[in-house]
Amino acid sequence: MTNLTAKNISRRSMLQIIGVGTASALLASCAPNPAETTEPTEAEAPKMATGPLTVLLCCGTEETHQLQEKFNKYFDSTYGGMKSDLQLTPAGQNYFEKLQTLFAAGTPPDVFDMWEGYVAPYAADGALLEMNSFIDADPEWKFSDFQPAAIAAGSYQDKLYAFIRNFYPGPSMFFYNKDLFDKAGQAYPTFDWDWNKMREAALALTVDTTGGSKINQWGLAFETWFVVWLHLIWSNGGDLLNADETKSAIAGSESVKAIQYFADLINKDKCAIPSAEASAMEGASNAFRTNAIGMFMGYAWNIADMKAAKEQGLNWGCVLPPKSFAGNRSFYMHLECWAIAKNTKVPAACWQYIRDFTTTQMVEWTKNYPGIPMLKKDIGLFTTEENKSYGWDKLPDIIADPKNIRIPGAGAKFDKISQLVQAELDNVFIGNVTAQAAMDAVTPSVDEELARKG
């Protein structure tokens, strides 16, 4: 991410970057086994109450807004008497502040965007309409038709409150510079690599190409924001919180070992680029694109820039990030999903809106947001030939186990908790303290935040 420090990026900005960075470049037009796109006719439309239906979006791109407008016109013409009112969050306004204001005023939208981590607190407050009854009555859909991880992420107390459009594992890309690997006589990364194999290659790729005493080519780059450190500790069998989310679990040995290992790559082995050096190069991604990095642990939104760099001569490949010491990969779950206000006057229309969007728009939607669709049958929209070249064809099997793609828990409190942890881990990654000391230090603060009312 040029000119942005990843660990400081907002969720809203992150979603905008995902859309902008991939809308024109990530997914080519031809997806094998495309989702069903036949739109129901008015004669086939189910009977339901008529009236206005407000839809609130948090963000997106011009392409996704146009797609939504197009769908609204289809929906209104298909179901006589409906009038879909699409509302966008004004630039610069916090989406959840707007949403909370609408709920407080008793005028929430009928259908609206929901994010990871917010489903549980909104459902617990009675703001969301559960969707189990709609699926149970559906003539075609069953819960077994959906991705298990998507059901888990959208549920609270065994009820579904958010219907995922699609979701993104992060960090899901391990870019490598083929020319630097060839020059060092190293074999390219593969799906079977683990962290130790990555370290061996990083040491071999780290050099001073000027003949002086200062490293100017590093073997590895990774960013140190919460998506990355959660990926590391989860993959190694650790966790941020205990099972019922009442206490911190981050000081456990598996979490500590994972963080210390990656901090040592920077400070002890000197084979991973320090954050100060990466910032001076306008970020880790940009450092990789300028041939200063052998391997970069990145994200879907990096692909557009990487493609542009390839046109300028950067010879790169990509696989999934290496396995942990525990032999596992567990990813942070970025997701796009719908929710329904519990007090909506048109619940059947809300559900039909969500259902029809899922059955008619996913081909176009995944060209803008290249995630894993909610419906298992639509997985072909994700496993394109291009995505296979990134190693993503392995992801469906990995995330079939919901433990391997997760949201962090703690609901709306996660923002504060992640800030507390980040402040301590920043000191680990610059070599000021050990991972154990940092995690021991932050544990009481995390426990206090979890115990806080509200």
Question: What does the model show?
Answer:
The chain is an alpha/beta fold. It has 19 helices and 13 strands. Strand 4 (155-156) and strand 5 form a beta hairpin. Helix 9 (226-235) crosses helix 10 (253-267) and helix 18 (414-429) packs antiparallel against helix 19 (435-451). The model is unreliable at 1-46 (pLDDT under 50).
Poorly predicted runs of 5 or more residues: 1-46
What integer is the average pLDDT? 87
Main sheet summary: 7 strands, mixed
For the terminal residues, how far apart are their CA atoms?
34 Å
Number of separate helices = 19
Structural class, please? alpha/beta
- SS elements, strand count: 13
Strand content: 5-15%
Rg, rounded, reads 23 Å
Indicate the percent of residues in helices. Answer: 40-55%
Rough shape? globular
What's the gist of this structure?
The protein is α/β, with parallel strands linked by helices and 454 residues long. The chain has 19 helices and 13 strands.
Keywords:
454 residues, alpha/beta, seven-stranded mixed beta sheet, four-stranded mixed beta sheet, 19 helices, 14% strand, globular, disordered N terminus
Topology:
Elements: H1 11-22, E1 51-57, H2 62-78, E2 82-88, H3 95-104, E3 111-114, H4 119-124, H5 132-137, H6 148-153, E4 155-156, E5 159-160, E6 163-170, E7 173-177, H7 178-184, H8 195-205, E8 218-221, H9 226-235, H10 253-267, H11 275-280, H12 284-289, E9 293-298, H13 303-311, E10 316-319, E11 331-340, H14 347-360, H15 362-368, E12 372-373, H16 385-388, H17 395-398, E13 405-406, H18 414-429, H19 435-451
Parallel strand pairs: 1-2, 1-3, 8-9, 11-13
Antiparallel strand pairs: 3-11, 4-5, 6-11, 6-12, 7-9, 7-10
Helix pairs in contact: 9-10, 18-19
